[in-house]
Amino acid sequence: MPWVPNRPPASEQLCLLASLLGCRPPASEQLFSFSGLQTFSSLVPVPTEIVLPLDVPTREAARPLLKQLQGTVPWMKVGLQMFTAFGTDWVREVADAGYKVFLDLKLHDIPNTVAKAVESLAPLPIDMLTLHTSGGPAMIAKACAAQQATKPDLLLLGVTVLTSMNTEQMQAVGWHDDALTQVRRLAQTGSEAGLRGFVCSPHEVASLRSELPADTRLVTPGVRPAGADLGDQSRVMTPRDAAHAGSTHIVVGRPITAATDPLAAAQAIAAELASVE
Ligand code: C5P
Question: Ligand 1 pocket: which of 162, 234, 251, 256 to mutate (most atoms <8 Å of CB)?
Answer without folding.
Answer: 251
